[in-house]
Amino acid sequence: MKALVVYCHPYTNSFTAAVLGRVQEQLRDHEADVRVIDLYREEFDPRLCLDCWQSYEDTKINTQHIHSHSEALAWCDTLIFIYPTWWYGLPAMLKGWLDRVFVPGVSFHMPDAQNPNIRPALHNITRLGVFTTCGASRGLTFFVGSPGKKTILRGLRLLCHPQVRTSFAAHYLMDSSTDQSRAKHLGKVDRKLRRFLRPKRSDASQPSQTYGSMLGNGTKSAVGDA
Asked: How many Å separate Cα 210 from the centre of its chain?
């Protein structure tokens, strides 16, 4: 197992950091080869600058500033995101990482004369996990639509292997959490990870929809042309 963990939190002693520690412990127990991208510690620049935007579709040069990250995506078979949910979505740092790293030729292929749809390029990823915290309640987060969760477990998922296994765990009402609620959540993370990391069966069920039907017939890139 080759696991890439993308971690996003500015405070080193946060509860999110405790979740990261628990994930790393489980990965070690499963004898995984692990790489961690700590976006704040790396001082990753999340801005899609003009030069990056102009070269976005040029697969010869669009990874020149993010090569180590794009190489890690191609290397891994397990991709795990650990972050706090802010305003129901992804932190700006993490959203910017997706904008800059998930470029054509790395995570998907642009439409062409033979293919009207975006085509996935991350078939190497067979496990996709999200472990987050939310200040809002579960009900309010679902009412708003859980945009952060959907960005990864619906949108990004389409770029992975057709039989990708997913896992999700969130500690809701984080602002009023207690020692007991946090300990309970870490136990939930452990249980989720044990199921998530178990050996995959060869007879996994086929997806119910094709990539073409789920991706639609649009010809815009993942970033768009706004």
From this structure: 21
pLDDT attached to residue 82 = 98
Residues in the chain: 226
> Rounded to whole angstroms, how far apart are CA atoms 57 and 109?
9
Q: Which residues contact 61 (CB under 8 A, 6 or more apart)?
A: 55
Dihedral angle of Cα 108, 113, 115, 116, to the nearest 10 degrees: 90
Domain 2-215 CATH class label: alpha beta
Q: In what side-by-side order are the strands of the sheet with 2-7?
A: 33-38, 2-7, 78-85, 127-134, 165-171
Sorted by where each begins, the domain ranges of the chain are 2-215
CA distance 26 to 23: 5
Return d(Cα 168, Cα 81) in angstroms, integer: 10
* DSSP SS3 for 104: strand
* Cα first-last separation, the chain: 39
Segment 90-104 mean pLDDT: 97
| CB proximity list for 33: less than 8 A, separation 6 or greater | 1, 2, 3
pLDDT of residue 84: 98
C-alpha 97, offset from chain centre: 10
pTM of the prediction?
Answer: 0.88
State what percent of residues in the chain have pLDDT above 70: 88
